[in-house]
Amino acid sequence: MLHDPLHVRNPVTTVILGILLRVVVWVMMLLAILSNMGINITALVASLGVGGIAIALAIQTVLSDVFASLAIGFDKPFEHGDFIVFGDIAGSIEHIGLKTTRLRSLGGEQIVCSNTILLQQTIHNYKRMQQRRIVFKFGINYGTPAEKVRQIGGMVQRIIESVPDTRFDRAHFLSFDESQLTFEVVYFVLSADYNKYMDIQQEINLQLMAQLEQKQIRFAFPMRRVEFTGGVLPRINLSDASNEAAAQSAQR
Asked: Which residues are CB-neighbours of 159 under 8 A, at least 6 positions away?
């Protein structure tokens, strides 16, 4: 039978179950001994129940974290070494304890989080991601002929299919935006490695730049066109402005 790393028993769960089992065994043995000695254990059990409730109320936060640790051990939303993101926190799991879970962030510092609070979050586990879906956009100049615009989708598809460990999904002329004709591209990186994704995206960008340049298609950049109606623009003589600036400089 093959060993599945996702079903490795959490050592914290084993420790907690062992402690609970030992406590139950010792309590049962103690009650049996007291009963054999002729002591009425009914009142004792009742008092233990009341005392247990009081203790549970006093340490309910700790117990909540302990049971959350059990839930992590049984459900396995993450394990040691997994890279997770929740809220604005991201890091690799270093230790899952009885009360807290410790992560190592990308910046290098250790993050300690209560097990109860952690399980209340929506957790993104990137270690178990099989592939990465990528969506990116780019824009070209409005002066591009329609026939060249029509060719861009196929060109992008050929570029992506030429890069290893990718799967092309689609490339479409998306919209007429303020200063560009916008294309949207979707493809998959067949790996969870973020550095590999960045290498692939860089290669796609470089090939896209080169092929658009070959076809004399220009990338768009932000620009505004201003039209004056019902008036006359003032005429500016650049030579007069230059002479005036030179005169002011000489006076200084």
From this structure: 204, 207, 208, 211
pTM equals 0.63
Quick count: other Cβ atoms within 10 Å of Cβ 251?
6
Pairing of strands 181-189, 166-176: antiparallel
Is it true that domain 11-128 has CATH number 2.60.40.2890? no
Portion of the chain with pLDDT greater than 70, in percent? 72
DSSP assignment string, 102-121: EEEETTS-EEEEEHHHHHTS
Distance CA 216, CA 155 (A): 14
Domain boundaries, the chain: 11-128, 132-215
Q: Specify the length of the chain in residues.
A: 252
**Tokens 């962030």 -> residue:** 105
Asked: is 132-215 a CATH 3.30.70.100 domain? The reply is: yes
What is the rounded CA–CA span in Å between residue 76 and residue 7? 8
Residue 78: how many other CB atoms lie within 10 Å:
22
